[in-house]
């Protein structure tokens, strides 16, 4: 059985690495990995970390290209590779442009698609943008759905996806997280110096398109927190987006307790998260990872496709409100009971065995069920 995995961004690389490793280990499966190169340097670091060498690397990244241009180029370059390889199954992950194009081009060749991390929803098509619509479209195109949680499965069932084709696996990001945190690690000198301090460390990340106009309020809250809590420092890997960097320069400037650093490779980032006291982020994946390390997460978004974390108590939505971020962060810094009530909760997103579960399902269940009938069912849904 030939399984092609299509990915192209750093988050996809992290979350699909355990799956590709498991596929490569299985003698029954011929594994083909296609890296679109939607991200370049950041993804190359991940591939090296997990010792993965893709069969195809398209180097699709181009400065200043629009989503429309990226989509067009991906369709033109991915299609002939799928035609050449003719896999039995194509696996895509999550909600990126690579994900959408990978699923769509496979569908056009009538090749079944398996969607890893299926069923995430905010039900607001502009939040996150364009990811929410990407994942909804992919779930219409897919024949098999690997949902991280029972809530994700229920979202799919509510959308009339056949429950027999949905498998709850946990999230593969926990597999990757545990694999990396179990390895010994030495920080580079700059990070080592930061963590010599006994100050409580807040890890801050911001990058969402829909937050760009409001990020100044997040940074103002951070300034207030650090000013009022002398035992607190912030580690802030600043996204390369020029608009974000301009806002950071305008709002944060120089502060010896706010460490503005370049984006980290995955290994360093995971260990920074492990050393941190709490996390403030608008990222999706960090909402799953940080609870796995016992770190409370304040989500700088008004919606989340990971409500399981909010319901469990590992996440708290604070939006981009300066007052709400300031208040909730201060509460966790000064109220030990409030902090422990979040930090001690079991991670609702998995136990590190998702990739093995996915590959087992592919080999033992899906392969024997791949048929024209399932493809016709997919055609009918679209």
UniProtKB/TrEMBL annotation:
The keyword Isomerase applies. Its EC number is 5.1.3.14. SUPFAM superfamilies: UDP-Glycosyltransferase/glycogen phosphorylase. GO terms for molecular function: UDP-N-acetylglucosamine 2-epimerase activity. Keywords: Isomerase. The keyword Metal-binding does not apply. Pfam families: Epimerase_2. Residues 21-363 form the UDP-N-acetylglucosamine 2-epimerase domain. InterPro entries: UDP_GlcNAc_Epimerase_2_dom (IPR003331), WecB-like (IPR029767). Belongs to the UDP-N-acetylglucosamine 2-epimerase family. This is UDP-N-acetylglucosamine 2-epimerase (non-hydrolyzing). It comes from Alkalicoccus daliensis.
